[in-house]
Design brief:
Helix content is 49%, strand content 13%. It is an alpha+beta fold.
Length: 86
């Protein structure tokens, strides 16, 4: 990326100023954790790749699951998060 464009890129934004994919999820996760640090955040998404999952975990999520992982996996992740937060 040319240096003039690179200087315009901000965290969570693309070079054209639009939000980067997943930026809203990361910001929401951080906001929840800042407002209520005792709250365990489990993200449920249709589109998270490994990089996005890692970013959500870094932002404070306990887990990040795809919607197609099945009800049992989702329920187990929520239970585990609730136990960890207790």
């Amino acid at each position: 990326m040319p240096s003039s464009r690179r200087s315009r890129v901000h965290a969570g934004r693309r070079a054209d100023g639009l939000p980067a994919a997943g930026a809203g999820r990361r910001q929401a996760t951080r906001a929840v954790r800042e407002a209520a640090p005792q709250t365990a955040v489990v993200c449920l998404t249709a589109s998270a790749n490994l990089r996005e999952r890692d970013a959500l975990i870094e932002a404070g999520a306990v887990d990040c699951l795809r919607k197609d992982q099945g009800l049992e996996a989702i329920v187990e992740a929520i239970r585990a998060a609730a136990q960890a937060a207790a």
